[in-house]
Amino acid sequence: MPVLHSPGRDARLLLVLLAAAALHTVPAASAAADEPGWTAEPAAGTAAARPGGARPYFYLQGAPAAVLEDRLALTNTTDQERTVTLRGADAHNTADGALAVRPAAPAPAPAPGAGTWFSFGAGATVKIPPRTRAVVPFTVTVPPASSPGDHPAAVIAAEAGREVGVRVHLRVSGPTLAALTVEDVAVRGRGAASVVAYTLVNRGNVALAPEVDIRAEGAFGEVPGRGPRAVPVELLPGQRAELTEPWPGAPALDRVRVTVTVTASGGARAAGAASAWFVPWRAAGWTGLGLLGLGGTALGALFLVRGGRPRRGPADGGADGGPAGTPGATTPAPQHELTGASR
Length: 343
Prior knowledge:
four-stranded antiparallel sheet; Immunoglobulin-like; seven-stranded mixed sheet
């Protein structure tokens, strides 16, 4: 049966819809996709990096002593009010190269980074009405003595133990240097399970997206390595990452020298090398046991031959080699001994 609306009720419904539109209401379908309840992202602006105005991260650049500005969008997709707190944080690489941020500390860190340059003013704590998007401005004040290059950071939004980090690519104007080193190269495992382990260290002042090339030279010539490929790591300035590359083409029996060459944009290039033996230990073990058994058989046969040789008795001579019955007498040994000759 159709539902009939009175004119007064329709007017009230229209006012509610207009008020919701003014508060940037989020559709219900989007709310289901954005669970568990709220999101944080760069607000759309003229510096948008994607079609449609969406930005995947913040990108800010300025000279020392500059004050940079941007805006963060917080979207509440639920039917209840949310209270979100904001802070800046330093970004870094974990041991395996993943990106992470420093946790909030009650006191300033011994060497505070760009995370301390952020200010949200009165917007450090934001109350977001239901199904509403709030846009919060913030500033980044670059210290006058800041070194040029990249200073990775993030904006952290937190509520009830849940945190969302938004990357901030922050660069201080000035000379840049792309440099890295390759350290601790080693070969681990055997056969198809072999891997080449190495450590990358960013020695410059800009973030790097490295590419690795692995070559191997054996005793009998070049061994198939791994061609150039991108490393799924963004290596931040001053950071290191311990990485491995699968090497399914490792030889079964050889002594090889493995060279790991890493390059990155900006002219960064470095190499490291290591030597490794590849020996099929199981086959070598069986071979060794076989040789040991063969040696034991030969030794036993030698003892049998020596034990079966007849000894000379008194009739052939005394203990000192003299004629029978003449103790202590000696005679020259015969020039030849004819086995089987009659005596």
